[in-house]
Please model this.
Amino acid sequence: MTAEVEAPGFDLALTLDSGQVFHWEPDPGRPGRFVGLIGATPCAVERHGDRLAIDGPPPAEVATYFALDHPLDAIVATFPRDPAMEAATAFARGMRIIRQPRWECLATFITSALKQVPHIRAMSRAIRERWGRPVPFGGEVLRAYPSPETLAGATEAELRACGLGFRARHLLGAARALASGQVDLAAVAEAPDDAARELLCRLPGVGVKVANCALLFGFGRLAAFPIDTWIERVLREIYFKKKRRVTPARLREFAAGYFGPYGGYAQQYLFHHARSTWRRGQPPRAAVDSGPDPR
DNA sequence: GCCCAGGCCATTT
DNA sequence: AAATGGCATGGG
Model:
């Protein structure tokens, strides 16, 4: 049985491949159709014009997960008007910041340190296959991401066998801190942005960048602005092109003030645009030549 | 062999 | 506060 939800101007494929979520996969033989899980609920989804066709969860659950209620036009209207931001906005039109389960989101970003997106996907898949609860769906078996309690019972060697390397100790330590109640994600969800970030940073393997990714993609904090290697290059080579020795604190200060209340959205559009169009870590000449010069 | 990848951490200035 | 080096693994 297939249900539908209205999803005007939503680019499903772009959103699922934008480096914010790491387990959705194309349905082989059915182009445009993606299979994944929303929490523990299996789901297949594909776009038909301004509607989504859904198999699995109730439509309302899908609408919440994909944040179809986010007012994209109003959000984009808050972005600063500069050539780099406008190019990224045009390039990533229809991308949404989705609402992921908190632990699943945090855990995958703990494993993301010094890894490329395809590797993060591979580690997520290996962890699901090893510890995830099997969920039958359409003749296949999907695996839900294991809870902190489940992973707390794993060994570091078992996690390393999933390709985590030095990240194994971080993920295991975070799982155990949550399973023991030493840190409480429900408390994070109730705290203001700065306090929530500080709580998350108490977990092993969680620094400011990973905390901001979790806040943005797992806690709905749309002002959170993760600065990774790509965004740092965007900031330095476009927004601080003529400056020398820009400190990390200055970059954070600029980002927090310049990109506005939906800075996380702006960041994700800039991230996707840069990752998709830059070559050898360098921006296209046009991007630099048209860049603004703050302060 | 080289280089880099959605960083974090401990240590030193 | 800011710079430095170590850390595992995989791919170009």
Summary: Strands of chain A lie at 3-6, 25-26, 33-38, 41-48, 51-55, 134-137, 140-143. Chain A has a mean pLDDT of 95. The CA atoms of residues 41 and 92 of chain A lie 28 Å apart. The two ends of chain A are 57 Å apart (CA to CA).
